[in-house]
Amino acid sequence: MDIVALIQANILTPVVLFFILGIVAARIKSDLRIPEAISEFLPIYLLAAIGLHGGLEMRKTGFESMLVPLLVAVALSILMTLYHYQILHRLGKFNIFDSYALASTYGAVGAVTFSVGLSFLKSQGIESEGYIAAILATLEPIAFILAIFLTNMAVSKQMRTKKEPFVKNDLDKPVSGEEFGIALEQSKTKLLTVLRESITGKAIIILLGSIFIGYVIGEHGFAPIKIVFEDMFIAGIVIFLIEMGIIAGQRLDDIKKGGAFLIGFALAVPTINGLIGVLIATYLELSVGGAVMYGLLFASASFIAAPAVLRHTIPQAKPSLYITSALGITFPYIIIILLPVMLMVSTALHNMDAINLMGIFDQVLQ
């Protein structure tokens, strides 16, 4: 199957069609809404299902199998977030706060996108390494930590500028060193509070907790709940994507506010990051499906967890930019086009028997 045929087949899957249905409902101003209780329940359910399968896989393969992919993923996540900022601030000319917010949004991992990726592979009859869910859980707080660290640097720099005696505050009085220290300490306290809340948030807790439970109970213990957390998994995604489609449809008009550069960024960066992830995963000897999911970790953008943190850490940034770009542009692009592209690339790389990828990497490193 060529790439065009694969994309066409992907568009006709229930997951994508229900997402498009949500967009259409929003554009025609329908009163279609998912009840709030269900909207709050479904992300927890999806994360629990992902975590349980991750725990089961870790029980079968052991922790050592995921150690190298985990460390590489952490390093890549940090590097990609940093280069996102450079692109946005230097080339896109976004202010420092919008640049940090967008960089961290695209450095974070989209758990919803990850769920759709698993559904996509399942529709193709392809399995992936379950321990990637544990990498997902690890990258989520790391992205937040980096965002908070970058924000703290920006705040500290501004505070130091105001500390100069020739710079006046709003009351035309010099800012004293004591006032500077108090303000800086308050900033650090606020950031540490948000950091603690991010790490102990419900998404991380349910994901890590489910991984642990899956590891403990094994296949025998999972059997009684398999119908809920495996057989009904795609149904849960379908219902949740109706709401995501409605939200994306409501924000389509905001896309033009970001300009052509942000649209290009929201399409090009996930593509580059995703393909880099697929290539590295292949080098690390992950399976075809595992390479796709590994690449998806870096291609996705967080439009649920990250914005909640950014509203506290970078209140000066415009939510219309980072939420709209992640949900209105990147998310539809990934689930409709980029996922099939990454699968084709992963399949091609795994079928290149005549080329030794490890040898290529070794030559490059030398």
Number of helices: 16
- Cα(first) to Cα(last) distance is 37 Å
Q: Which CATH class is shown? A: Mainly Alpha
**How many domain regions?**
1
- Mean pLDDT score: 82
Percentage of residues in strands: under 5%
Topology:
Layout: H1 3-11, H2 14-27, H3 36-61, H4 64-91, H5 96-107, H6 111-123, H7 132-163, H8 177-199, H9 202-222, H10 226-231, H11 233-250, H12 255-283, H13 288-299, H14 305-313, H15 319-350, H16 357-365
Report on this structure.
With 366 residues, the protein is mainly α. It has a single domain, classed as Na+/H+ antiporter like fold (Up-down Bundle), CATH 1.20.1530. The protein has 16 helices and no strands. 42% of the residues are buried. About 5% of the residues have low confidence.
Task: Please give a quick description of this structure.
The chain has helices at 3-11, 14-27, 36-61, 64-91, 96-107, 111-123, 132-163, 177-199, 202-222, 226-231, 233-250, 255-283, 288-299, 305-313, 319-350, 357-365. It has one domain: Up-down Bundle (Na+/H+ antiporter like fold). By secondary structure, it is mostly helical.
Which features does this protein show?
366 residues; mainly alpha; Na+/H+ antiporter like fold; 80% helix
